[in-house]
């Protein structure tokens, strides 16, 4: 499985609908300071369900919606779609491509979709659990995360290995059934 395409519209500095294509090797994103490179990784975290405003480098969730420039009016909603190549069936869905979309309005109402079908944030979390891809997965290593993996408390480090070993899902289900 690999990240194939990202569509960003109205998210942070991306006012117009922007398509970013990745390939299955290495894609580098370069540009001057402030040109929106980090906004791309923010968009990936956001569409995968990030709810921490701090992680998204804002002060309130509304900050992710394009706030306008001298020439462009602010927009009313942000939308990001991430498309994975799933021909190896890493994700348990019978589709060669799996897309996840998040849309959020200024009312802060968020919508999530898997392959264009509305779903809950919980469904997205479950879909990516044990793949390392979720917003807490190890496939997104932000500045400073390397250090936290190395120096965090042993239980936190263990969670990274549990995700890699593919047992997070079972732990979560066990916890859910214990709480019922
Ligand atoms: P650096 O090389 O310094 O890390 P960068 O390419 O990673 O820069 P980003 O942090 O991705 O840059 O982008 C910052 C830009 O995004 C700023 O110009 C900021 O004004 C703009 N920006 C952030 N949020 C919004 C928003 N809601 N609406 C419009 N522009 C925004
Ligand atoms: Mg940056």
Automatic annotation (TrEMBL):
Annotated source species: Anaerosphaera multitolerans
Family under the similarity heading: Belongs to the SMC family.
Domain-level remarks: Contains large globular domains required for ATP hydrolysis at each terminus and a third globular domain forming a flexible hinge near the middle of the molecule. These domains are separated by coiled-coil structures.
Subunit comment: Homodimer.
Binding site for ATP: 32-39
Domain of life, source organism: Bacteria
Identification of the protein by name: Chromosome partition protein Smc
Function of the molecule: Required for chromosome condensation and partitioning.
Compartments where located: Cytoplasm
Boundaries of the shown chain within the full protein: 1 to 180 of 1182
């Amino acid at each position: 499985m690999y990240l194939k395409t990202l569509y960003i519209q109205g998210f942070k500095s991306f006012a117009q609908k922007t398509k970013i294509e990745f390939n299955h090797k290495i894609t580098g994103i370069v540009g001057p300071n402030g040109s929106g490179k980090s906004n791309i990784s923010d968009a990936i975290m956001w569409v995968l369900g990030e709810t921490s405003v701090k992680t998204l480098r804002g002060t309130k969730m509304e900050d992710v919606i394009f706030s306008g420039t001298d020439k462009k009016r602010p927009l009313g909603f942000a939308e990001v779609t991430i498309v994975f190549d799933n021909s190896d069936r890493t994700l348990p869905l019978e589709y060669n491509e799996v897309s996840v979309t998040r849309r959020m309005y200024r009312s802060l109402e968020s919508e999530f979709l898997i392959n264009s079908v509305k779903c809950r944030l919980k469904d997205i979390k479950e879909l990516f659990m044990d793949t390392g891809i979720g917003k807490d997965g190890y496939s997104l290593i932000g500045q400073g995360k390397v250090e936290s993996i190395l120096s965090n408390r042993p239980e936190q480090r263990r969670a990274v290995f549990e995700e890699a070993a593919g047992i997070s899902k079972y732990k979560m289900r066990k916890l859910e059934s214990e709480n019922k």
